[in-house]
Amino acid sequence: xxxxxLNLKGEILSAIEExxxxxxxxxxxxxxxxxxxxxxxxxxxxxxxxxxxxxxxLPILNTIDVSRKQVQALVLSPTRELCIQxxxxxxxxxxxxxxxxVVAVYGGEDxxxxxxxxxxxxxxxxxxxxxxxDLIERGKVALNxxxxxxxxxxxxxxxxxxxxxxxxxxxxxxxTRRTLLFSxxxxxxxxxxxxxxxxxxxxxxxxxxxxxSENVEHIYYISLAKQRYLVLKRIVDxxxxxxxxxxxxxxxxxxEVAEKLMQDGYNADALHGDLSQxxxxxxxxxxxxxxxxxLVATDxxxxxxxxxxxxxxxxxxxxxxxEVYTHRSGRTGRANKSGxxxxxxxxxxxxxxxxxxxMLKKSFKQLPIPNGLEVCKKQLFHxxxxxxxxxxxxxxxxxxxxxxxxxxxYLEKEEILKRFVSLEFxxxxxxxxxxxxxxxxxxxxxxxxxxxxxxxxxxxxTKTGEKTRLKMNMGNQEGITPRRLLGIINxxxxxxxxSIGSIEVTNKFTFFDVYSDQVKQLLNAxxxxxxxxxxxxxxxxxxxxRRPAKRNTQxxxxxxxxxxxxxxxxxxxxxxxxxxxRKGRERSNVGSRKK
Length: 595
Ligand code: AMP
Hints:
about 600 residues; Rossmann fold; 3 domains; 7-stranded parallel β-sheet
């Protein structure tokens, strides 16, 4: 299909041709004829980057009466950046339409400039909800004549708490308006808004509902929590041309990761809510023009950052919400380009990958963390590629050539190459010279019980002395078993000599004994994160102090535990009914530890 076949006006066709759009994208093929030929409302499930601005923008522009000096279309969007981007796109599409005005109004900027721009009434307003209400209340914007209302990234607007504002705005628009709602996901609240405010709406889906972009490859690496940053560096080093966003959970983590990357010589910067609007603008601009290769950001701060050719999205942590993952990964693989969404996960988060696979209907590939040798090889050949492709400015280099040749004449070609390569490459060789293997070794169930674990049992059983009872904030509900507990302790402490005594797993908590001289080490290992919380149990009296210890065939690290007596409860179906991923989880996650 061509744009011409979509019956768009000549002025619009010439503008999009100048922009280099050759043929409509799928969302445009579906939406443009619908908006032009039908009278109904529309709910479109489409990700950012699928071409949805043109999908609603082109048919709306096609129907605008330029001679009518009234607001005829309103586009609501969640962020200032998106607002600016949409207005820019609409201006581009309408640049050959004389008399057509598009004005963007959004918070975070002096309202007086926007008030001036509204003095000469535009036909299209692109707005963030809060600022628009302000302008309506000042009597500067009237919506009683609009023909089209577009709710763009509706799910994001709800996430950002604009629900009431959207309702207020909807109620100020005429019943006769047509509403076009675009959303990447379809949570219940969106369906409610559609039901309440939209008439006979048609629903179209671009790609699978809730699926990420087709062009995105999803991969993950399993890492120990404390080695996350080292793994990130390996990923970046393995991809010398990376241009991507590293998503972190909190502002603090964002700052820390960005600072470390900068200190380590990477071209990175941070984007988070503690920055002023001006600082955020500067960082985003630097990233857009590729002055920055890696942007470390929180989800909220990265919203509205419109960059379409990211090579990678890196999830420094997996988000709790699968929809957040969809949004993150949807930032790469846009406009028919391919992209990679990388996640660094802890072995106990594998169930989250399963959830994502189910939800996105895509498989995720686990890759081994590259070793130093692989990284060095990749960097070396990247350097060689660059050398092959570099543009040589003969004219400018000519005056120096004679002297250079003379200076190097005693060196063979091979020697010159070695030295040239070493110049750039030594820092990698040096850094990776003694690099550790960061891969986490996952044990199978059998090996876990009889093999390595057996020898460990012996070791654990030999220690004697006073014990302290500790409490962990996860229990049967989270799929904890004695074996899983040991796996978690191994992961966090990376020290197999810590002896664990009786284990008792209740629905919500796990209690276990530790020799008192190892308590501090164990608590310290868990202190730097919030997910797994281990504290001294109230009273701190070990189970064995209360009950004489008995050896059993299970061994159980020296003592029979109450936890063992409750074995039938592990993997309890009823406790896990609402969490299908709990089943079978223990097999893959138990006992991971560093080589
Ligand atoms: P959007 O989803 O509106 O943010 O668009 C994503 C990117 O695709 C933007 O950079 C658009 O300029 C570009 N784009 C939109 N429609 C087309 C098309 N038909 N052909 C090529 N690029 C397009």
